[in-house]
Amino acid sequence: MAADRRDVRPEFHPQGFAPVSPQRRGLLRAGLGLGAGSALLAGRGLRAEEVASPPAEAPYSLSLGPGVVDRVYGQPSRFEAGVIRRNVPWLTASPETSISFTPLQHQQGIITPSGVFFERYHAGRPTVDPSEHRLMIHGLVDRPLLLTMEDLRRFPSVSRIHFIECPANGGMEWRGAQLNSLQFTHGMIGCAEWTGVKLSTLLEETGLTRGAKWVLAEGADGAHMNRSIPLEKCLDDCLVVYGQNGEALRPEQGYPVRLLIPGWQGNVNVKWLRRLEIGNQPWFTREETSKYTELMPDGRARGFTWPLYAKSVITFPCPEMPAKGPGIYEIRGFAWSGLGKVAQVDVSLDGGVNWQRARLQEPVLPKALTRFTLEWRWDGRPALLQSRAVDETGFVQPTLAALRRVRGTNPIYNKNAIQTWQVKADGTVFNVQLA
Amino acid sequence: MAADRRDVRPEFHPQGFAPVSPQRRGLLRAGLGLGAGSALLAGRGLRAEEVASPPAEAPYSLSLGPGVVDRVYGQPSRFEAGVIRRNVPWLTASPETSISFTPLQHQQGIITPSGVFFERYHAGRPTVDPSEHRLMIHGLVDRPLLLTMEDLRRFPSVSRIHFIECPANGGMEWRGAQLNSLQFTHGMIGCAEWTGVKLSTLLEETGLTRGAKWVLAEGADGAHMNRSIPLEKCLDDCLVVYGQNGEALRPEQGYPVRLLIPGWQGNVNVKWLRRLEIGNQPWFTREETSKYTELMPDGRARGFTWPLYAKSVITFPCPEMPAKGPGIYEIRGFAWSGLGKVAQVDVSLDGGVNWQRARLQEPVLPKALTRFTLEWRWDGRPALLQSRAVDETGFVQPTLAALRRVRGTNPIYNKNAIQTWQVKADGTVFNVQLA
């Protein structure tokens, strides 16, 4: 009987499990052999003593865990408690007008988990009862609409995978601040599968009258966050979404409904969407005059700078995820473009002198995070890692020096510069800016 | 000043917000107009009185919610508290050897939220410390390996979107039981973006010796769940995954590491994976002899029936999501195949007499849930809704009658039959089986 212990089931042994039998341990030991001499093994930093030793008989494999009744809505393992959104308290006047950052250093695929998708509030996060919420569409239309959430869900629906990025992502670096962190330099971004209705479908329902050229989107938050959007973009690929990663939108993302303006600055993707007004010119709201504009070197301000251009960053190694001694690694990162698909990503190990083509992970979707990887045989000498994205329109991600030559150091927004990570001999990684 | 209230920011008014000014209310009212006469509007069940009335000034739009510091790991809105996994207590002897069901009736895109991804345990859910966990690969190999999680993450990585389905999904219906629920008839499935290492990469590292033909996968749960898998499949598209939907695998899905055997029965995707043994023949474990086999009408049992064939189901309307009176709706559902991509889905409104081609939502990925939709102008008369998937190999989803002719009524597994939802005149939906 003892040799068959591993097939014992709890229904027969309600008291729990006995340790694996000694015979079985011997079998495992014998099966392991001693062949730990592979060069590849050594290259990956595998330790010979581990390869030659039997597996630990960890207590977990001998205990019966809970069953299906304890977690009707699951959570991450308690060993992942460090994978959380973080914020910078000194960055803004109050937490209600602030931002939290996605832990990109831990993100493994192109989907950002809804639990850690970055937040940006202009006046806190309202709690909205979906049965009370209405979306009004009015202005230069034939048939104004006042829609309940139930109404919205009856329209033809689509699902799309897109990123949303705050244009202030990395904005502290225009003047030279260097937070030594991937999360804080690039974490104002997330990518999700969004589900909702094409805005063009809703506007087909209302009809448009002569002169219709702009749409004002307004949120139900305390700030009544509002932005003017050209009608052409609205009729192209914009969505009014109620779903995110297979479930209802999270409150942080505008529950029960938000705008999705693929590839454009995050703030235009108005959350807790309650009103769309169709007009013949932009409204020049506070958010597009005193905010979300860029002061240029000649004293003029650029406004309505909506699309986010090609950008990329290496997520391993990075300040939070150092290398551990020489050996074979895989450099990993994300690339994205607000203009379409990522066409190519190159990686440099020497601060931009030489470049190698990285592998892009399928599916490569327009205006979505795209994962790239490159094998890296690190000899243990200091390195300067960079990634450079090119999108399908031919746009090449610029250096920060090139951006500054055109835009100076006044802006906060639209910093899509190449990031340099300095890897020191001990494997630690630092955020540096090359001259 | 009053007219500009909506632009007030909390940094200037720390005490909160005053109500929207009366002038502004008047503006909204005027802007709405009265044009509610659209036939399409009426078709969608929009209520004229709502279209003509101003938006409710709900309290939520006037209050300042919390900011970025209260939820470092977010949760769904409290209004979504009903979107949870559910289980059937009488289905199994104990919750530790049971299953919970995905609320498919609420799933909006192809990604199943990790929080509600179905669970299946053979002996409860162990809590595994990733720093203690090891994966052993041994047997007919040149270089046995004992890998830490850190080792695993250093190998070249891939991310793929695939479904996992328990072959018992819908199994209660072989003999005629009819749970009136989408969640309980089809909820033993989930689809996620998985990240990890190709199993072929790991086997390249160990090398394979002469005679290697089968792989035994074993879990670290109390059951030491184990299955034999042909080497050919392992070298094709199998993964050893540690990531799910952008974050670490959830404990319910085998944290910190599981096998992913795309398109094959869920139980073969061994969770809490701790051992892979390479051999020259199958092990005929308990899970492939007394369990996960199908008793055929002639008294023989089919075993090793791994792939899940083309299948689909309508998720709206369904028993949990009834129709609300005549009008225009969108029929929605999921299709999938363990053999590759979904090529086509047809929908019938009359129990399989006439069929219409449904629209497939991009991206259509191999061995992944695929969303389909079809406009439905319901006249309010009783209907019998069905969907029928065809995959890229030409496999056509069969009727239950056709399946029973071949396999009888003894099996529990691999019921991929066409589902019929009966819509009654009042919009309620019932699970029925056609003769």
From TrEMBL, chains A, B:
Region: Disordered, residue numbers = 1-20
Query: What cofactor does this one take?
Result: Mo-molybdopterin
The superkingdom of the source organism is: Bacteria
Any keyword RNA-binding? no
Tell me the Pfam families matching this sequence: Mo-co_dimer (PF03404), Oxidored_molyb (PF00174)
Q: Where is the Moybdenum cofactor oxidoreductase dimerisation domain?
A: 306-419
GO molecular function ontology, one term from the record = sulfite dehydrogenase activity
Q: What is this protein called?
A: Sulfite dehydrogenase
Q: Which organism is it from?
A: Roseicella aquatilis
Task: Provide the taxonomic classification.
Answer: Bacteria, Pseudomonadati, Pseudomonadota, Alphaproteobacteria, Acetobacterales
